[in-house]
Amino acid sequence: MDDGGSTGSTALLLDIEEAGERLGISRSQMFRVLGAGQLRSVKIGRLRRIPVAALREYVAQLEAQAADDASIPRRPERPTVAERNSGSRFAKRGTP
């Protein structure tokens, strides 16, 4: 039976650490995400809480962004140093 505590899996609001655990990121990264305005939060007195619904929205936003990024054509990869030097005077040449 749920005691209504914030640590229950049915809690509607999570503290920073709990929200980070659910996302699989650190407390510091959670503060970066919040500071950048990428994730909604609410204040209750002096406490900062993350609505579970906001976590779902954030993950959906990340998934949509990943799908958009996958559709953007990538520029060709840069040649490696060895490939760039293969025609230079420093490249090893076969013996005559």
Please give a structural write-up.
With 96 residues, the chain is mainly α. The protein has a domain of 60 residues. Helices cover 44% and strands 10% of the residues. It is built from 4 helices and 3 strands. It has a 3-stranded antiparallel β-sheet. A hairpin with a 2-residue loop joins strand 2 and strand 3. Helix 1 packs across helix 2. The longest helix has 20 residues. It is elongated.
Identify low-pLDDT runs: 1-6
Order of secondary-structure elements: EHHEEHH
Shape summary: elongated
How many helix segments?
4
Please state the CA-atom Rg, rounded to the nearest Å. Answer: 24 Å
Fraction of helical residues: 40-55%
Question: Total strand count, please?
Answer: 3
| Largest sheet, strands/sense/barrel | 3 strands, antiparallel
Mean pLDDT: 83
In which order are the strands of the major sheet placed? 1-3-2
Sheet-strand content, in percent, reads 5-15%
Question: How widely separated are the two ends?
Answer: 84 Å
**Helix-strand makeup class:** mainly alpha
Please tag this protein with its features.
about 45% helix; disordered N terminus; 4 helices; about 10% strand; 3-stranded antiparallel beta sheet; mainly alpha; about 100 residues
SSE inventory with pairings:
Layout: E1 13-14, H1 16-23, H2 27-35, E2 42-44, E3 47-51, H3 52-71, H4 81-85
Helix pairs in contact: 1-2
Offer a concise description of the structure.
The chain is mostly helical. It contains four helices and three strands, in the order E-H-H-E-E-H-H.
